[in-house]
Sequence to fold (381 residues):
Amino acid sequence: MTTLLEILLVCLIGSSIVFYLTCAVFTHQFFAPVVNRAINAEDAKPPVSILVPVCGLDAGAWANWSSFCQQTYPHYEVLFGVTDPQDPAIPVLQKVVATYADRARLFYGLKPRGINYKDSNLSYLLEEARHELIVFADSDIRVHADYIHTVTSPLADEKVGLVTCAFIGYHPQSLGAAIASFGRCFDFIPSLLIARSLDRGLRCAVGATIATRKATLASFGGLHFNRIGSDYNLGKRAAQAGYRIELSRYVLESDTGHESLAEVFQRELRWARTIRFNRGAQYYSMVFCYGTVYCMPLLLLTGYANWAIVLSLATLTVRYLQVLTAMLRINCPRLLLWLWALPLRDALNLFVWFMGAFGQGVYWRGRQLRVEGDGLITQWE
Fold:
């Protein structure tokens, strides 16, 4: 006799199959090869300021920070900012600035202007930036030599307020790093594309890279110093102000090094609670996205009934096809070496979502914070 729990699991699994298929379609469409317009040497290339807030010494720091200074773009500057004057990143940054003295500057000992140290840091760099076009960039990404032109060229259209980029680890060196890369490649980017379609345009930004203009940023309220998910909030406010937000096809490389599963969980729990506080009730609709995990309890409840086995195999097949589509279109073939860990990734997805569904605490760069209201943060007492 079919039980109510079995019916519920079948509904969840069926919805997940639809979700996986939708992810595959949107990923395929967005990243399908296109004929790029040849870059004209006479195209307008206004000067740009890249602003990089730094906290701690991430894996591959020298290569990451040097890549910002090795651009083919004609006129630009790179500003690095550090809050803590004792931060271990400072000696490496000083070496970067000495090596690229014609384009890089360093500011440290920047007194926090709020709970969000990252945006506080950026506010100082924004004041020092010499150019109208600005790019906020995370310190743990590595960029190609045409990065500036790629992320700023859409701003030639005045209707475009922000340009943003997703990111993954193309070459994970540990299980934790591979699991993190899986989450970004197979789940985050496809979900972002679905949200972009449902919202009839992107209504958020990804902190790894946000390109905009000073005047545009000021027009929708500038930086906020006491908010979690400030990148999301910037995109939300830009969209509300009538600007279009462009998601670049360029997926940045994030060097996740040899991070552990515990570190991945801590970060993704912070992201989950950030999404919950920013998206509200929509967060709970994600319960329909974990079909592969629901298959095991269904098999156990039904005593491995033939129909449950067929449904489970169909779910796994669709999920793996969706994953392979993402790997192909985003061009990250090295993730194939870690594909055996996909069930662990899926189980972690459900666990992170469940834990993110309640609670107010987040752990961010060595600090325990409390999230309140629609994303405001305070120091955990």
